[in-house]
Design goal:
Blueprint lengths: L2 E7 L2 E8 L3 E5 L4 E2 L15 E6 L18 H15 L4 E6 L1 H12 L4 E7 L22 H11 L6 H15 L6 H4 L7 E2 L1 H11 L16 E4 L9 H10 L5
Parallel strand pairs: 3-5, 3-6, 6-7, 7-9
Antiparallel strand pairs: 1-2, 2-5, 4-8
């Protein structure tokens, strides 16, 4: 289990879950909420790092957003900077997947001096993945109709907690190359439920203009880029493009 820590910063109080020993490493996702169960992505890092699994603004018990713009990627990385400073670290590692990886790119572009290295998985440097037929988010994807139905449930004020859990489960199943093996993949407890207000801001305010493609060559933070060959959210071509665009990646 992860230990809970409330971190007082110049930008408010943030809830983090901490585990492991070693070099400090920050993990978060743009619109997920974590708890003491950790998360499948963050858990392996605890064998070599002291991992801080961060609930961003509006997630868990972290400070609320008084303005919608505080949910943006640029404001979120400023919050992460405030957390790093409050913890007393000069630099740390950042690791994120999906929109967490996109947030990492914004972090490295905005505050390169604060990062020793970075891990970016299943991400994209622009909103082009939304138009790729291999992505469930594209209108011409065979998965898109079902995805929209699930989003209605996830964001509904009338849906029960159980209905929302089942919708999140079905959303995950759309991402699995072998859905029949779900029980094997997810046999350990984990966390990471969707924060609707953060998802809405990303989807309707930030994503339509998101494009860091031209800035990638300015990011010199050593980065490990990974992606699944059958990723149905951000297809592997977009991770290959990130790797090609970053000067110091593998």
């Amino acid at each position: 289990m992860w230990g809970r820590q409330m971190i007082q910063t110049s930008r408010g109080t943030f809830e983090c879950f901490v585990a492991g020993e070693g070099e400090p490493l920050c993990v978060t996702h743009l619109y997920s909420e974590f708890n003491e169960r950790g998360t499948y992505f963050a858990d392996p890092f605890t064998s070599r790092f002291r991992v801080y699994l961060v609930n961003l603004r509006e997630a868990g018990q972290s400070v609320k957003a008084t303005e919608n713009e505080q949910l943006s990627m640029k404001e979120s990385v400023r919050d992460l900077e405030a957390i790093r400073e409050a913890l007393g670290y000069n630099r740390w590692v950042f690791a994120g997947h999906s929109t967490g990886g996109m947030l990492g790119l914004v972090y490295a572009h905005s505050f390169p001096e604060s990062l020793t290295k970075m891990v970016v998985g299943g991400a994209a440097a622009s909103n082009a993945y939304m138009r790729h037929e291999g992505s469930m988010y594209a209108r011409n994807s065979p998965l898109n109709k079902r995805l929209k139905e699930l989003f209605i449930i996830i964001k509904s004020d009338e849906a029960s907690p159980e209905e929302k859990r089942e919708a999140n489960r079905a959303w995950t199943d759309l991402s699995l190359y072998r859905p029949a093996q779900r029980a094997e993949y997810f046999k350990r407890p984990s966390s990471g439920k969707v924060v609707p207000r953060r998802l809405d801001y990303y989807s309707f305010k930030e994503l339509p203009h998101f494009n860091l493609t031209e800035e990638l060559n300015c990011i010199h933070v050593p980065t490990f880029v990974f992606c699944g060959q059958h990723d149905t959210q951000c297809p592997v071509e977009f991770s290959e493009a990130i790797h090609k665009g970053l000067p110091h990646s593998e």
